[in-house]
Amino acid sequence: KPIRITSKNGPGATILRGHYVNGTKTAQRGVRILNLDCADAIVENLTLADATMGTDPLYSSYSSTGCCALILDGTLRNCTVRGGSVFGYSGGIHLVNGLVTRCIITGNSATAGHSTGCGIGMVGGTLEHSLIYGNTSAQARTGTGVYVNGASCIVRNCTIARNSTKGTYGAGLHANNAKAQIIDCIAWDNTSPRGVENFAGSAAVTNLFDDGDPLFSDPDNGDFTLVDGSPCIDAAVGEPTTELDLAGNPRVTRVRMDIGCYEAPAFAGDTLEITGDKDNLGTVEPPYGNYEDIG
Q1: pTM of the full predicted structure?
Q2: How far is CA 125 from CA 91, 97, 116, 137, in A?
């Protein structure tokens, strides 16, 4: 039977911790916080935090992976996933199938082993409208923010920023399947020993902003919303798959959807509306006078 797990007061108030005893985080092996394995199940409005992962007697083939959450199917929505530390793959989330939407994935790590997908590792499913930042890898591997390794994977309208690895490439996003889809995402200021390494690998990439400044509001303090003048505003090519962005604002506020997980607010300045054509007098509203040769 499908189940829905939610919180009344949101992820800032409701935190599920993975490996604490009497309020103190214990070392080494612990328990995974969430195993999700039902297509109709929904987990939402929670924080999954501070888990360590070793062997898993229930899902033995997924031991040492998906420290905070293992999603075989179902939906994780409007959650924060942070502080997962794994000896292996996927410090935060390991996604096999299902949907991760409008989530913040941050501060997860892999301390040794393969160290891929420290924020989220994917072999299937969809990751959308989510922020993946500040995840780290202690070993020389790749895809610290997002690691994609399945033909059915879709990464859509995500912001992947300031993840770091000791590997050689793909600190932000590493795709390892040419059929995986990357659509309308921002990858910015992800670093490896070679410098900025926002994207590496092979995928069907559509409209990835990974070269230039997206003009975030205050990235040093974790604010990756867009300011006026950002080249990512009204620049998405896809259609919205949800009514709300990560912050709970309308997904389209101007002409088109923005690239990344946040939608810039509607333009707040004055608007001059010009009518006319090159062969006739035109007018400007509000009326600032008549202008000739307006084309």
Answers
A1: 0.86
A2: 17, 4, 17, 23
